[in-house]
Amino acid sequence: MNNVALVTDVASLPIDYDMALLLDACRAAGLAAEVRDWEDPTADWSAYDAVLLRSPWAYVDRLPAFLAWCERVDAVTELHNPLRVVRWSLNKLYMADLAARGVPVVPSAFVSPDTDPPAAVRQFLAVHPEAEEIVVKPTVGAYSKDVQRFVRSLEADAAAHVARLHSDGFVALLQPYVESVDRDGETDLIYFDGVYSHAIRKSPMLMPDGTVNVPTFESRTPREADENERAVASAALAAAGAHLGRVSWIFGAGFGR
Ligand SMILES: Nc1ncnc2c1ncn2[C@@H]1O[C@H](COP(=O)(O)OP(=O)(O)OP(=O)(O)O)[C@@H](O)[C@H]1O
Ligand SMILES: [Mg+2]
After folding, report:
1. Cβ < 6 A, ligand 1 pocket
2. Residue 138 forms beta bridges with which residues?
3. Separation CA 92–CA 47 (nearest Å)
4. CA dist., res. 164 & res. 136, Å (int)
5. pLDDT tens per residue, range 158-183
6. Are 215 and 205 contacting, i.e. CB atoms less than 8 angstroms apart?
7. Burial (0-12, 13-18, 19+ Cβ within 10 Å), 114
8. Does the predicted model carry a pTM greater than 0.90?
9. Which of 48, 250, 63 is nearest to 169 (CA)?
10. How far is the CA of 22 from the centre of ligand 2 (A)?
11. Per-residue pLDDT tens digits for 86-139
């Protein structure tokens, strides 16, 4: 493999803080890497040995177009990740698949558009009396888009957000707010070929007053993952591998700690 497209889009490239580093690393490794917009109609994807999905985050608003594009690319060259990994990993319903294989996940309720939002939120709060706050988010999302935090007393606002996600065509996901995220942030573990490499800390995104932080370069810092975190991440990787079958793929895991 010599000739690689690193895929982004116009809106996302300015906030993809890893792209410049990746481009340098590719070039240092002797790869002819180019940054390309998945929405660029003039791109000839068959000209690349591999097409690597890096930051095509506009897909959250254009999912059918993005998946159709992935299929077109997959037909003419090597897409990373492979199509079925892309399909599986861009929908947080994968949490249910991981949970079914014994991986500890944040308790998650999926609320489809045929469900009454106030009733769904009421039921979730009843099942989680310990949760002082809950999070409402779309099952397909990126970069904290449309992720919101609500205290119990704002049940009606949480239901209104579920209704908004439904009207945008999304299944909504309800979770208890994991309080340790306020103190410790979130930990992402990076593995290469199934072997733990390193971890990063992501600072909390959802502020207690309801505002959502914009991720910056500084909001991610290096950190160590302890044994428990590595065990959970390894279990998640094994479960994902078992679910998807034997494929070569890349998967990022983020955990509150
Ligand atoms: N249940 C939760 N408890 C605490 N914090 C949460 C919870 N869910 C989400 N968050 C916060 O909101 C951020 C974005 O949520 P999440 O990762 O689920 O959505 P996303 O849109 O896929 O974001 P990204 O692409 O950045 O991973 C998290 O990084 C975390 O700071
Ligand atoms: Mg995340």
Report:
1. 106, 135, 137, 141-145, 147, 175, 177-178, 181, 186, 202, 204-206, 254, 256
2. 172
3. 32
4. 11
5. 999 999 999 999 999 999 999 999 99
6. yes
7. exposed
8. yes
9. 63
10. 20
11. 999 999 999 999 999 999 999 999 999 999 999 999 999 999 999 999 999 999
Q: Which ligand is nearest to the CA of 141?
A: 1
Tens of pLDDT along 21-62?
A: 999 999 999 999 999 999 999 999 999 999 999 999 999 999
Tokens of 124: 């979730």
67, 48 contact by CB (below 8 A): no
Residue 256: both structure tokens together = 């509150």
Question: Domain residue spans in the chain?
Answer: 3-80, 107-177, 181-256
In angstroms, the Cα distances linking 22 to 4, 33, 50 are 11, 9, 15
Assess contact for 182 and 194: CB atoms under 8 A.
Answer: no
3-80 has which fold? Rossmann fold (3.40.50)
| CATH class, range 107-177 | alpha beta
CA distance 201 to 220: 5
